[in-house]
């Protein structure tokens, strides 16, 4: 791939479900801060020319020290987050202007992303406005209102969406600008492309690509990372 790919890594959320008094991006996962696991994957990929972490302003100074400690040379600047995730990603997109032909948006709280999944997603971007990674749901899903089941949805048509999500810079920036002007907010980047009629491709990810939301998730992620290391010998 000849296009310049910039990875934007939003990690500026409050982490309310993670527990009071904790700082999720820098919370220790095995021997590294949580956010570093994903950043190291992008650091090692030749396709990615720059990585832009988005942190709470209060975390930016600590972020500089941590990223230098782990020799993350593709990080040339840290961007301050906003009130909502969408505001944070928008700040990252503005920072990538003039540097990116393609942007890869990945939650810093997903430490188990791997290079193979990223490359599969990148290879699918030609012909689409965006590519998202996800997995088919395993459970039966029901639509519920006021505690009452309205209907059972067709499981084979429902996927759980993950990150990374990959877009041509011009397409996602246009979608973001339109959403911000209209006051439309979503927790999913590809939803902004979809609302403008864009074409989004779904790529099969991994059930292990979990998002760290609660302290219990750290235990699961640590186990999976140890298993991955053991499998590599």
Q: What would your notes on this structure say?
A:
It is a single chain. The chain is of the alpha/beta class and 233 residues long. It has one domain (5-231): Spore Coat Polysaccharide Biosynthesis Protein SpsA, Chain A, CATH 3.90.550.10. It has helices at residues 34-43, 60-69, 85-95, 115-123, 169-182, 189-194, 215-231, and strands spanning 5-11, 28-29, 32-33, 48-55, 79-80, 102-105, 130-136, 142-145, 148-152, 159-168, 200-204. The strands form three sheets. A seven-stranded mixed beta sheet has the order 5-4-1-6-10-7-11, with helices on both faces. It has a two-stranded antiparallel sheet with strand order 2-3. Strand 4 (48-55), helix 2 (60-69) and strand 5 form a beta-alpha-beta unit. It is globular.
CATH architecture call: Alpha-Beta Complex
* Strand portion: 15-25%
Report how far the terminal alpha carbons are from each other. 30 Å
Question: Roughly what is the average pLDDT, rounded to an integer?
Answer: 93
Share of residues in helices = 25-40%
In the sheet with the most strands, the strands line up as: 5-4-1-6-10-7-11
* Helix-strand sequence: EEEHEHEHEHEEEEHHEH
CATH class: Alpha Beta
CATH topology grouping: Spore Coat Polysaccharide Biosynthesis Protein SpsA, Chain A
User: Would you tell me the structural class of the helices and strands?
Assistant: alpha/beta
How big is the Rg? 18 Å
Q: What sort of overall outline do the alpha carbons produce when their principal axes are compared?
A: globular
| Beta-strand segment tally | 11
Biggest β-sheet: count, sense, barrel? 7 strands, mixed
Please count the helical segments: 7
Total discrete domains: 1
CATH superfamily: Spore Coat Polysaccharide Biosynthesis Protein SpsA, Chain A
The low-confidence parts are none
